[in-house]
Amino acid sequence: MFTKINCQTRDEFRSEGQGDASVINGEKERDLQTIQSAAFKEAEEIMGKADAEAAAIYTAVYDRSSASRDLYAFMKAMETFEKTFDAETQIILSTKSELYRYLKDMN
Question: Could you state, in chain order, the average pLDDT of each consecutive group of 10 residues for the chain (107 residues)?
Fold first, then answer.
């Protein structure tokens, strides 16, 4: 009789504990999702502000004269070419292309 009651009590406690654990895990997952969403939103806002500030700096620096605008165009073109080409890349250039113009001016 005593063992039967102990088993029932044990099973009730275990069941209650499992129910409480499920509630706690559900709350944890919800809280984690909320925190991650807020962090992602904040990171996106920070990156947006940084991009805007960088664009303003570039504009202020490179928009001072014709030469500075040409330098900026050259730097952006070189940056694009660096990301686009590797040691194995072969290209055919038009004599009207920016890259051809820059390479021709190097001589």
Answer: 67 84 93 96 96 88 80 82 83 82 71
